[in-house]
């Protein structure tokens, strides 16, 4: 009989490429996997996957009442459904996973995508930070099994709580017949032959939109933003403030398939974070590797994880400070320096052979084999 793994997130599942990869790999390895998230008012029908998907219905969709309701519903779901292992993805689902694993006496795993308490939107709010830090101090030491996205975050957890977590990085699946050819994009998302800069991912605090948007005043290209988040209203207001309505295009949340095509169409991407939270400084964003696999150079922050990979073969222009001048100059360099652009594009072609999910999933499967053997 197949061992059953329950994985828990707070999103609505459709756009979570990372968890789709993880659950697909675990299913392929012989486990029966269920990914649990939430149903939103505008949730799209779920695509059929090799693993099971469940959305929990809610009355509240944001704020304290959302977290309270979702965690209660998640607790009873986990309690009533068969499982041999429960995996909490990030801190906002960790308590139900902890309590149910204790009650049922089954293994528990912590999948720490980031230093949750050190995210900008948490660390900048003292009361919220205090609450989540208490949760972290209470629960994380009880999760002896876990993994995270890079060695910096793994070291931080070991220092704080004495846990030794593996590293499983967020990388796309390496596809045969890559479209990475030529000197520029294979298509365009906003007009034939028109070069554009792409931001893909959560439109959240700490992603430097307050500098990226005004920087576009000095860049001869459009900016396409694919994603939604807690900083969307402020980002739209910045576009109005700088009269960039014809230069910044909001596409909202985009499903993984169409998003991949848009990414391949871009001239370059951006991976920017501010320094107002350690989570940003220690980050290794999914989009960093998505751009590499799409064969497009990018402007990224000169933080340790990005610098380490860029030093192995330059695929990005790194900025020490993600200010308006620095970001605009870096983007213009990618737009105007043909030799540099060709070099970075070729390096992306080579880097995708080293940094891909086929390599990372081997570590993921070993972790669960050890826990469930």
Explain what the structure shows:
The protein is α/β, with parallel strands linked by helices. The protein folds into two domains: 4-171 and 357-372, Rossmann fold (3-Layer(aba) Sandwich); 196-354, Rossmann fold (3-Layer(aba) Sandwich), CATH 3.40.50. The protein is built from 15 helices and 13 strands. The protein has helices spanning 17-28, 63-80, 94-104, 120-123, 126-139, 151-161, 209-215, 232-241, 256-265, 278-281, 286-294, 304-311, 324-336, 338-354, 357-372, and strands spanning 4-8, 32-38, 52-56, 85-89, 108-112, 145-148, 166-167, 196-200, 222-226, 248-252, 268-271, 298-301, 316-319. It has a seven-stranded parallel β-sheet with strand order 3-2-1-4-5-6-7, sandwiched between helices. Strands 10-9-8-11-12-13 form a six-stranded parallel β-sheet, sandwiched between helices.
Give a concise summary:
The chain has 373 residues and is of the alpha/beta class.
Radius of gyration: 21 Å
Strand order of the largest sheet: 3-2-1-4-5-6-7
Percent of residues in beta strands: 15-25%
Mean pLDDT: 93
SSE pattern: EHEEHEHEHHEHEEHEHEHEHHEHEHHH
- Termini Cα gap: 13 Å
Class of secondary structure makeup = alpha/beta
């Amino acid at each position: 009989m197949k061992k059953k793994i329950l994985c828990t997130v707070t999103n609505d599942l459709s756009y979570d490429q990372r968890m789709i990869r993880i659950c697909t790999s675990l299913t392929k390895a012989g486990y029966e996997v269920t990914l649990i998230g939430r149903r939103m008012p505008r949730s799209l029908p779920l695509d059929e996957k090799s693993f099971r998907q469940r959305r929990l219905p809610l009355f509240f969709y944001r704020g304290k009442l959302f977290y309270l309701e979702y965690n209660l519903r998640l607790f009873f779901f986990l309690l009533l459904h068969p499982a041999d292992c429960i995996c909490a993805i990030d801190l906002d689902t960790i308590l139900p996973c902890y309590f149910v694993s204790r009650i049922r006496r089954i293994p528990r795993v912590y999948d720490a995508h980031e230093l949750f308490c050190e995210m900008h939107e948490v660390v900048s709010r003292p009361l919220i930070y205090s609450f989540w830090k208490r949760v972290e101090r209470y629960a994380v030491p009880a999760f002896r099994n876990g993994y995270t996205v890079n060695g910096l975050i793994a070291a931080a957890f070991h220092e704080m709580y004495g846990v030794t977590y593996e590293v499983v990085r967020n990388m796309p699946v390496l596809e045969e017949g890559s479209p990475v050819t030529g000197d520029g994009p294979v298509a365009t998302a906003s007009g034939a032959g028109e070069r554009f800069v792409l931001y893909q991912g959560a439109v959240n605090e700490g992603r430097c939109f307050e500098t990226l948007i005004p920087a576009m005043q000095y860049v001869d290209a459009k900016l396409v933003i694919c994603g939604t988040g807690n900083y969307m209203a402020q980002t739209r207001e910045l576009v109005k403030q700088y009269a960039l309505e014809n230069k910044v295009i909001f596409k909202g949340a985009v499903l993984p398939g169409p998003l991949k095509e848009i990414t391949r169409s871009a001239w370059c991407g951006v991976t920017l974070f501010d320094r107002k939270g350690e989570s940003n400084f220690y980050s290794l964003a999914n989009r960093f590797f998505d751009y590499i696999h799409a064969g497009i150079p990018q402007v990224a922050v000169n933080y340790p994880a990005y610098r380490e990979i860029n030093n192995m073969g330059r695929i990005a222009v790194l900025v020490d400070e993600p200010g308006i001048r620095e970001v605009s100059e870096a983007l213009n360099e990618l737009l105007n320096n043909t030799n540099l652009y060709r070099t970075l594009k070729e390096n992306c072609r080579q880097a995708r052979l080293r940094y891909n999910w086929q390599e990372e999933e081997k570590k993921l499967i070993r972790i669960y084999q050890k826990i469930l053997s």
